């Protein structure tokens, strides 16, 4: 039997409504619990268990980096190939995995919504945080291995590197919220998101730099927030040896708008969720 689930309850502590900070801490605990549940149901306790959170993206990132390093020239446009691949593929993996886990996330976790403290936003945040954490951990370990083997140098500007990663994490959350809500109301979105994410690879900025493109295409490709984010990451990695193009002002407001739209749709998605 299908049940359309609706909850409208205010959390109480000692009979009184929680403060704003109390509500925030409560939702943090809920997201933490969902995160551990997600790891347990996805990876279980067999073999390396939870370590697959990092192990799975490591296989992707290390595999692509090794293949590109082996078959391409050691430098492209005077920049080391391994660093180009690593600084592009880690953010790309983070984004694609976040989208993949957002599709139909509410249906597969719909029974959790019977708990009054669990919201659709908590479910998406827990899944996206898990993917972001896994990709960042994998990227760090692959970077460390490449550095020890002499294939990559330490970042030149850590501030710019962290800024680019921060923008990209927010971009992953915003697009995951959008996809999660839209896939709940349209089967077409659920079926096409894998194809769309694959077709968007040329607009991700993962395997090229904007400066390599003809000038007439550079402003157009910078309309992609992913390109701006990865250009910032590479500006942090290569410093003055690379001519990175990015627009922090544009990246800020477009990511904020995407996040607001995704948040608004997610908060309204509950009426479309059918719990089996």
UniProtKB/TrEMBL annotation:
UniProt xrefs under InterPro entries: ABC2_TM, ABC_2_transport
ABC-2 type transporter transmembrane domain boundaries: 31-238
Pfam families on file: ABC2_membrane
Top-level taxon: Bacteria
Subcellular location, record wording: Cell membrane
Topology relative to the membrane: Multi-pass membrane protein
Keywords for this protein: Cell membrane, Membrane, Polysaccharide transport, Sugar transport, Transmembrane, Transmembrane helix, Transport
Keyword Ribonucleoprotein attributed: no
TM helices/strands, residue ranges: 18-36, 48-71, 83-104, 124-149, 161-183, 195-213, 248-267
Family designation: Belongs to the ABC-2 integral membrane protein family.
Protein name: ABC transporter permease
UniProt organism field: Nguyenibacter vanlangensis
Highest classification ranks of the organism: Bacteria, Pseudomonadati, Pseudomonadota, Alphaproteobacteria, Acetobacterales
């Amino acid at each position: 039997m299908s049940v359309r689930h609706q909850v409208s309850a205010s959390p109480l502590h000692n009979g009184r409504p929680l403060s704003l900070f109390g509500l925030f801490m409560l939702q943090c605990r809920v997201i933490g619990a969902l995160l551990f549940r997600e790891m347990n149901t996805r990876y279980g306790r067999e073999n390396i268990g939870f370590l697959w959170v990092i192990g799975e993206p490591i296989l992707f990132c290390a595999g692509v980096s090794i293949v590109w390093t082996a078959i391409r020239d050691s430098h492209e446009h005077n920049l080391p190939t391994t660093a180009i691949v690593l600084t592009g593929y880690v953010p790309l993996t983070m984004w694609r995995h976040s989208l993949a886990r957002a599709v139909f996330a509410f249906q597969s976790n719909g029974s959790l919504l019977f708990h009054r403290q669990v919201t659709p936003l908590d479910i998406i945040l827990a899944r996206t945080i898990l993917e972001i954490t896994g990709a960042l951990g994998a990227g760090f370990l692959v970077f460390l291995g490449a550095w020890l083997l002499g294939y990559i140098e330490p970042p030149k500007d850590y501030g710019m590197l962290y800024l680019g990663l921060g923008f990209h994490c927010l971009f992953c959350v915003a697009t995951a919220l959008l996809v999660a809500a839209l896939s709940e109301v349209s089967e077409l979105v659920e079926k096409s998101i894998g194809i769309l994410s694959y077709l968007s690879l040329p607009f991700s900025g993962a395997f090229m730099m904007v400066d390599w493109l003809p000038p007439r295409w550079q402003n157009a490709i910078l309309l992609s927030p992913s390109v701006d984010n990865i250009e910032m990451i590479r500006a942090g990695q290569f410093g003055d040896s690379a001519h990175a193009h990015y627009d922090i002002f544009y990246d800020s407001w477009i990511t904020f708008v995407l996040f607001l739209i995704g948040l608004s749709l997610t908060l309204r998605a509950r009426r479309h969720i059918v719990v089996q």
